Every structure is written in structure tokens, then in C-alpha cells.
Amino acid sequence: MTFLLVFLAIVVLGAAFVMATPLLRRIKVGGRSLSAPDLEDGFEEPAANLPAVLLPERPTPADVDRLRFSLGLRGYRMDQVDEVLDRLRDQLAVQQSELSRLRGRLAELTAGSAVVGPATGDQPHE
User: Fold this and answer.
1) What's the average model confidence in pLDDT over 106-124?
2) Is 28 helix (H, G, I), strand (E, B) or coil?
3) Are 27 and 34 in contact (CB under 8 A)?
4) What whole-number distance in Å separates Cα of residue 87 and Cα of residue 97?
């Protein structure tokens, strides 16, 4: 019986709101009447008042470790964000070590070819 009364009260309040919505459009505020866009302004994206959290153009694992996000009531789950950032940091570390290894190898090959001189392979004879 209690459930039925609560359900009935919710239905009555919903119907009253639906019927009152056209009346709200006729209400005058500050000498002008409210219109539908005025009533929808409450659902706009709030303006950001915090600085953006940015990474440099070429982030390093240390840059990812220094990232700090603001806490929010309805924000992302911190454990998921931390997990993704940890994986990003690890991938950046692997890429940086591979890039350093390849640059070192390239420097060795470049230095080796400079010592040997130009290749004297099959060249056309004149």
C-alpha cells in the first residue's frame, strides 16, 4: 500500500511539472518573458575554472609521473586513471629506451662508415 502511494505521488508531481512547463514560459523576469532557451540554460557545460592538465609535445615517463588531476564530485575513477597513466608511463619508457638504443646503433654505424670511407662496390666504369 505504501509503495502504491509513493508511486502515485511521483506520477502526480510529474504530471504537474509537465502541465506547468508551458506556464513557466509565460512568466516575466526582469521585464521579459522566459523562453525555452532560457529554461535550458541550466544544463550547459560549466565553464572550466581550473588550468588544463597538459603533457609536453614529447612526454617522458617523468612527465606522466608529475601529472596531477583535480578531484571532482562526479569525476573519473581515480584507480582507472592511475592504471592508464601507469601503462602510458611504462610504454613511454620502453619507447625511449628503444629509441636511445637505435640512435646509439645509428651513431656507431655512421662513425664506422666514416672511418672506412665511401663504399667501392659496383660502380660504372667510364
Assistant:
1) 71
2) strand
3) yes
4) 15
In total, the chain counts a number of residues equal to 126
Hey, which bits of the chain come out as E strands?
28-29, 32-33
Give the up-direction half-sphere exposure of residue 82: CA atoms within 13 A in the CB hemisphere: 3
**Predicted pLDDT at 118:** 57
Nearest CA among 35, 31, 69 for reference residue 52: 69
**pLDDT at residue 103 in the model:** 95
Secondary structure, 3-state, 54-80: CCCCCCCHHHHHHCCCCCCCCCCCHHH
Q: Look up the pTM and report it.
A: 0.44
